Amino acid sequence: MMLFDSHAHVDGPEFDGDRGDVLARARAAGVRRMVVIGAVGDPTSAERAVALAEQDPDIWATVATHPHDVEKMTGDWWAVHERLAPHPRVVAIGETGLDYYYDHSPREQQQVAFARFLDLAHRVGKPVVCHIRDAHDDARAILKEGRAGELGCVIHCFTGTPDDARQYADAGYYVSFSGIVTYKTAQPLRDAVPLVPRDRLLIETDCPYLAPIPKRGKRNEPAFIVHTAEVVAQCASMNIEDLARQTAENAARVFRLTPD
Ligand SMILES: [Zn+2]
Ligand SMILES: [Zn+2]
Q1: Which of 100, 44, 91, 47 minimizes the C-alpha distance to 72?
Q2: Are residues 115 and 175 in contact, defined by beta-carbon separation less than 8 angstroms?
Q3: Which CATH number fits domain 3-254: 3.40.630.30, 2.140.10.10, 3.30.70.270, 3.20.20.140?
Q4: With a threshold of 0.85, does the pTM exceed it?
Q5: Mean per-residue pLDDT over the chain, rounded
Q6: What is the percent of the chain with per-residue pLDDT over 70, rounded to a whole number?
Q7: Cα of 159 to ligand 1 centre, how many Å?
Q8: How far is the CA of 244 from the centre of ligand 1 (A)?
Q9: How many angstroms separate the alpha carbon of residue 158 from the centre of ligand 1?
Q10: Quick check: 230 and 187 in contact, CB under 8 A?
């Protein structure tokens, strides 16, 4: 089986003690490729993600500042992203977007930064990875205004309604499901899966957060994606091998990687 973890935060300090073991367990579990999201906290996350991607031919990086943290952005932070965005191992700008659930940064600042990261994505000709929580109407407007469909667009860790999923798919965006899809209360997410065309489906861990059942409550890691793949495959009426291959192909397409 060939799994692709389209969204992992293995650059983070949670993995400093055993990163090599974590990556080895991922490979043993069939995770052949992954995208490391360099966007948590300050831009050292972007630097760490790029460094990981430079060391490992099966890892690629993204760069941005998470909507939680945009309030703290300075000109220096933007300069780091501008410098790293064209790097050959950077395959997308993200995660960027809107999070009105936590509201850690003022909404207007989130909107301004989101539009500016979309502009950066256009300038370097790369897709965007979007974090959208309780903000789907505003996000759709900004994505449309920012011509995200021309870039390639991933709605990561999708948590909207089935109708939101359909609207994103209709716009040509990719919809990525995390371990949340395995949780008992997440029936609306399971209902959303078959509304996304198979060639727009992605899976991710978003590790170290959101470990899927039966690992819920533990530190998540890429090897655990198999549990998410099982549930998404069931919802999509596919067997897990086909789902793994399809989502890996989709990830390679949106991130413009050579086919594996
Ligand atoms: Zn996110
Ligand atoms: Zn994330």
Answers
A1: 44
A2: no
A3: 3.20.20.140
A4: yes
A5: 97
A6: 99
A7: 10
A8: 22
A9: 9
A10: no
